[in-house]
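User: Hey, my collaborator sent me this sequence without any context and asked if I could get a structure. I don't really work with proteins. Can you help?
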Amino acid sequence: MAKELLRIDDLHAWYGESHILHGVNLTVNEGEVVTLLGRNGAGRTTTLRAIVGMTGARKGAVKINGQDVLKLSPHKVARLGVGYCPEERGIFASLTAEENLLLPPVIAPGGMSLDEIYTMFPNLQERASSPGTRLSGGEQQMLAVARILRTGARLLLLDEISEGLAPVIVQKLAEMILTLKAKGYTIVLVEQNFRFAAPLADRFYVMEHGTIVKQFAQAELKENMGMLQEYLGV
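Assistant: No problem. I've predicted the 3D structure and written it out in C-alpha cell form, which is a compact way to encode the shape of the chain:
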C-alpha cells in the first residue's frame, strides 16, 4: 500500500479579497509524479503556493506526512522536506551558478552533493563560474531545480518548468524527472505543456475555477483525452 505523503482537504485560498481556491481536494503518494492540469487562471499555481503558505488567507487542511501545516510559516513547511520551484525561478543574478547552488540551507538529510548535481546537470558544471544573468533560460531552470535538490527536500512542487524552453531542454527536464522518481522523490507538476507532462505523471488532476473537476491515472489517459480537449484544448 502506497504511503500518503500529501493530502489536501477542502482547501480555500485568497489573495486579498480574491477567492481563488474553492475547496480543493487531492492526495499524492510517496514516490508519485502527479500533474495538475488546467487553463491559466484555474488555480494550479495558487494550489502549490497554498501548500507552502505563500498565499493570503487559507482554510481547510494541508497535511504532509499526516501533519496539518496550514498554520505553519513557509520556512517551517520547507523544513518538513518540501521544495517549491516557482515559475519565475528566482535565480540570484549577481551570483555564479555554483554560488547559487551553495546558497540554500540544508532542511533535511539526503540533499544532493555538488558532484551529484553536476552528474545530473552537466551544463551547470560547465557554467559553474558564470553569473546567473549569463545563463540561458534552460540553464536557469536546471539551476532552480538543482538548488532545491541540494536542500534535502523530497517533495518537489514544480511550477511550469518547461515553459518557453527549447525542445531539447524540455527533453532533458523530462529525463531529470524520471531520474528523480527512480530515486524515490515525490513530485507535483503544474504544467501547461501537456505533451511534456503526459508521459511523466502517474496520476492527473484537472482544475477549473479553483477546484478539482477530474482525476485519473496514467492508464486512463487515452479514455480521458476527449475531456482534456474540452478543458485544455490539447
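In plain terms: The chain has a mean pLDDT of 93. You can pass these C-alpha cells on to your collaborator as they are.
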